[in-house]
Specification:
322 residues; alpha/beta; TIM Barrel; 8-stranded mixed beta sheet; 10 helices; 8 strands
């Protein structure tokens, strides 16, 4: 039993899935950036991308459900060749589904993607954009030189299209700590972001989401090389908050990998903690193998990394839980 499972047992908590509300699809590891905190280890040289036949099988499965939200992530999800096709296919479904694009902003300025922001606006795709700070020093340290300036320019383009202003064009920003510590108060930090971005750049947005960096992938390597991995894990364990359990994203989100395989969350996906057939067997399960009506009450696979989502105010794809 891992330490997180032991902690749940100490509090007499059983962690199981509720009604599926979000299908989060990680379409691959290809990205135009190589960020220090990336749990996916994404980058420009990665070859893992979702094929159209996989997209079609996902759409077929989705059509048999009433799951209302499709959340596209990566890497930079916009870089797969069939990104726009994916969105158009989801938009054609009845009942209508809401789409989220987890965008690094700078991709909107890359050659060949100049009309992408307008495409997203036409399809009323919600944008959740990584913006780890409102100062260039912190952003460029975490994501690379020039990323802050590119992010600001991209946000200004999005504002010009109505993002963050039109109620149908939602624009949210994501804050990740730039080191081995927990995020500050989400509400207080949101007020700081809105004040500074409006004052210096004329930028507006809807909400700020604070996310805790989980000790996996590239961030785990950073911690290890700086002799902070054990210290950070202890920080997360000591900050465990049982009140966050009901709001964990693994309870209402189905995570799908670039080949169509199924996981409880994107973090489990990066650790290879895949659903399998035959009650714990090693034969992988793909989304099209899953009966949509069988998801509720399924036990969730956990590991020590789960302390990252339950520390302090909690952390989810929609920001702080509490």
């Amino acid at each position: 039993m891992n330490r997180f499972a032991q902690k749940l047992a100490e509090h007499s908590i059983s962690l199981s899935r509720g009604r599926p509300e979000i299908l989060q699809v990680n379409v691959g590891k290809l990205c135009n950036l190589t960020c220090m905190h990336c749990h996916v280890n994404a980058g420009p040289k990665r070859k893992e991308i979702m094929a159209r036949k996989t997209i079609d099988r996902i759409i077929d499965w989705l059509a048999r459900t009433d799951v209302p939200t499709v959340d596209l992530t990566g890497g930079a999800p916009e870089m797969i060749p069939d990104f726009r096709y994916f969105i158009e296919q989801v938009k054609s479904l009845l009942p209508h589904r809401h789409i989220i694009d987890r965008c690094n902003l700078t991709i909107l300025l890359e050659r060949g993607y100049e009309d992408l922001a307008a495409f997203l606006a036409r399809n009323e795709v919600e944008i959740v954009a990584s913006m780890p700070c409102y100062t260039p020093e912190n952003v460029n340290a975490q994501r690379g030189e020039g990323v802050f300036e590119g992010s600001i320019a991209a946000l200004q383009v999005l504002n010009s299209l109505g993002y963050g202003i039109d109620p149908d064009l939602l624009l949210h920003l994501i804050y990740n700590p730039v080191g081995a510590f927990l995020p500050p108060s989400q509400n207080e930090l949101e007020a700081d972001y809105k004040r500074e971005l409006k004052k210096h750049f004329g930028i507006v947005f809807n909400n700020l989401y604070t996310l805790t960096n989980l000790p996996i992938g590239r961030f785990a390597s950073y911690l290890w090389h700086n002799n902070k991995l054990d210290e950070y894990m202890e920080l997360l364990i000591q900050a465990f908050n049982p009140a966050t359990i009901d709001g964990l994203m693994c309870r209402n989100t189905v995570s799908v990998g670039w080949r169509g395989e199924v996981y409880d969350c994107d973090f489990n996906q990066q650790l290879g903690m895949q659903w399998s057939r035959c009650n714990g067997g090693n034969k992988p399960m793909f989304l099209w193998d899953v009966d949509p009506d069988s998801l509720q009450d399924r036990q969730i696979m956990t590991g020590d990394h789960c302390f990252g989502c339950t520390a302090g105010a909690g952390s989810s794809c929609g920001g702080a839980i509490l």
